[in-house]
Design goal:
Layout (H helix, E strand, L loop, with lengths): L1 H38 E2 L21 E3 L5 E5 L6 E3 L12 E3 L4 E3 L14 E3 L6 E2 L13 E3 L4 E4 L13 E3 L4 E5 L18 E3 L20 H31 L17 E2 L2 E3 L2 H7 L8 E5 L2 E7 L5 E7 L8 H12 L11 E4 L4 E6 L6 H6 L10 H20 L15 E3 L5 E3 L4 H5 L19 H6 L4 H17 L17 H10 L3 H4 L10 H14 L10 H8 L4 H18 L6 H8 L13
Parallel strand pairs: 3-5, 4-6, 5-7, 7-9, 8-10, 9-11, 10-12, 12-13, 15-19
Antiparallel strand pairs: 1-4, 2-3, 14-15, 16-17, 17-18, 18-20, 19-20, 21-22
Helix pairs in contact: 6-9, 6-13, 9-12, 12-14
Length: 612
């Protein structure tokens, strides 16, 4: 009998323990976030939904949770918050992204942030934080992005940070730091651009050869400069004739031919945080640009899979447009501009290569290809993208584009947003690729280009008619990409004519919505495993983004908020009222699809991309 009672008590104890972890853990995380809310002044009401009476913080705006209802992301960048950070932030054990950049937060960086061992990105830049950088951050062994720039942090750089082997992006610039910049561990890959605007002592640069021209980040004496200048001038004269001959030969031969020119003298030269690869390195990595290594073809050129000497996989984009005399410096400037756009939802430029005949860009390899390939070119062994992943892709791509539009100076307009340019990493996180390349390829122009760059079905009407692009052309392309995610179909598909359907995806979706055929609209690969209300919400966002008038489309930052659950219902209701008013007043309302088809009836789809 006593044994039976003991078993019952043991069972009840297990239930109590399970209940504690099931209910108290979300409370503990909610308490931590409420402590942060209490410590911050919020003039714009961004934290209005953070209700301390709710058990689970996963329902709050700007908070993302995993399937176990544990907080994984806090996005409060550019929210006009003031006040201080709190030690309770260290009580979010599964937090991966802490985004508090571009506010007016003061005080110190809590040492307790070192407890966030799952943290991937810590962005506290553009605030008024002071005091030392906590050495406990060295415990963050999954950290890839650490940006503390533009604060008033003081003291020395903790040596513990050099032990973060996963660190890809580091920016400690424009603080009040002093002492020596560490040179060991992960810090060996970072250049002075990561430490500018401090009182730091940079390590001496050791020349790699007997005579080497001074780089932009080293200072040589006048005698060495004179010798290097003489050597450089002599080298320029020595190689002028072969370079001219190669350029003439390239004009005569098809661009498919690859010319093996000598590699750069120093393959370890860096431009900012970019490595300047030698041509030989990339030849070896891609098996001499073998056809079997082609990952894709686009308007800018072919992309090859490669493996570098250190074993890492890369994607090498071989730009197909010919170089012109005197464009090297401008090309480097544009490349560095693109490299400064660093965000978890943007494809990071790892390096570049320039020779008299070739220009190549080197990116990290994306294990899961593009959204387009996952939707329409997957093998039978790969499962289709499930609904939760598609929602994550929609939000991630929106965040990446919002960063390009609102946080880059000058702002970057993509001009070719589509499923094929949204890439997926090993955990299916959306990464926007090919951004800035339209500007890069126009580096010779001294005027605003009017060549339409894009893909039919994704091009906004005003861009097609005038050649003038803005961030709202990206919003239109994003809206069409959302429809690709939902339907699994191409933006422009002549095959739909066989069923007497619209070739333009936008018109096809509108027709099915008018007939209330939601189940026909959603990708059949989902096999009904989706939530109707969420599909409707994503379609609403897509239709708001693809309105005929660019002025009526939301900004990408507004799209992000709508996808996070903030403001979509109000915006949709307002749009519907305007539509009803137009219909009652019999006002003209141009149709996107018909307008685009009429304007491109004499063009093949690939002609719209122009000479990129």
């Amino acid at each position: 009998m006593e044994q039976g009672v003991s078993s019952i008590w043991a069972f009840l104890h297990l239930i109590l323990v399970f209940s504690y972890f099931h209910y108290v853990t979300p409370n503990a995380e909610g308490d931590a976030l409420n402590a942060l809310k209490s410590s911050l002044a919020d003039p714009n009401g961004v934290l209005q939904s953070w209700d301390p009476t709710l058990v689970n913080p996963c329902t709050w705006f700007h908070v993302t949770c995993n399937s176990e209802n544990s907080v994984t992301r806090v996005d409060l960048g550019n929210a006009n918050l003031t006040g201080q950070l709190v030690t309770q932030l260290g009580q979010l054990p599964n937090l991966q992204y802490l985004e508090l950049y571009s506010n007016n937060i003061s005080g110190t960086v809590p040492y307790e942030l070192g407890n966030l061992t799952n943290l991937v990105s810590l962005d506290l830049y553009l605030n008024n934080l002071s005091g030392p950088i906590p050495d406990t951050l060295g415990k963050l062994q999954k950290l890839r992005f650490l940006r503390l720039n533009n604060n008033t942090l003081s003291g020395e750089i903790p040596n513990s940070l050099t032990g973060i082997t996963t660190l890809q992006v580091l920016d400690l610039s424009y603080n009040h730091l002093h002492g020596n910049v560490p040179t060991n561990g992960s810090f060996s890959m970072f250049t002075p651009i990561s430490f500018n605007g401090n009182n730091l002592k940079m390590p001496a640069v050791t020349p790699t050869g007997p005579i080497s021209p001074p780089s932009s980040h080293s200072v040589a004496n006048s005698a060495t400069g004179a010798i290097a200048g003489g050597v450089a001038a002599g080298a320029a004269l020595l190689f002028a004739a072969p370079a001219i001959a190669l350029a003439w030969w390239r004009r005569r031969k098809p661009q498919e031919h690859f010319f093996d020119v000598p590699a750069e003298e120093d393959p370890e030269v860096h431009l900012g945080q970019l490595k300047r690869f030698s041509l030989r390195e990339l030849q070896v990595a891609t098996d001499n640009f073998s056809h079997k290594n082609i990952l894709g073809r686009g308007g800018f050129g072919k992309v090859y899979k490669g493996r570098l000497a250190d074993g890492s996989l890369v994607a090498v984009k071989r730009l197909k447009e010919e170089r012109t005399q005197g464009g090297e410096l401008q090309f480097q400037t544009e490349v560095e501009m693109i490299s400064m756009a660093v965000h978890r939802n943007l494809l990071r430029l790892r390096g570049f290569c320039m020779t008299p005949t070739e220009r190549l860009l080197v990116y990290p390899y994306m294990a899961n290809g593009s959204v387009a390939s996952c939707l329409r070119e997957r093998s039978e062994t790969h499962p289709p993208l499930d609904w939760d992943i598609r929602k994550r892709i929609a939000l991630g791509a929106a965040r990446g584009l919002a960063y390009l539009h609102d946080h880059c100076d000058p702002k970057i307009i993509h001009r070719d947003v589509k499923a094929a340019n949204i890439l997926l990493d090993e955990v299916y996180e959306a990464v926007v690729g090919d951004f800035g390349l339209a500007k890069l390829m126009d580096y010779k122009d001294t005027h605003v280009t009017t060549a339409v760059r894009g893909t039919i079905g994704h091009i906004a009407p005003e861009y097609l008619s005038t050649g003038k692009s803005s961030e709202k052309t990206d919003v239109f392309g994003y809206g069409v990409m959302l429809l690709e995610l939902i339907t699994g179909q191409r933006a422009f598909d002549l095959a739909r004519l066989a069923n007497d359907d619209d070739v333009m995806l936008l018109d096809w979706v509108k027709g099915l919505l008018k007939e209330k055929k939601l189940e026909t609209l959603v990708d059949g690969d989902l096999q009904g495993n989706y939530i109707d209300a969420e599909v409707e919400q994503l379609i609403q966002v897509a239709l708001l983004c693809t309105q005929s008038s660019p002025m009526e489309r939301p900004k990408m930052s507004e799209v992000v908020r709508m996808l996070e659950g903030d403001g979509l219902a109000e915006r949709w209701e307002e749009w519907q009222k305007e539509e009803m008013f137009r219909q009652e007043a019999n006002l003209p309302h141009p149709n996107n699809g018909e307008w685009v088809v009429d304007s491109t009836s004499n063009l093949r789809p690939d002609e719209l991309s122009g000479p990129r």
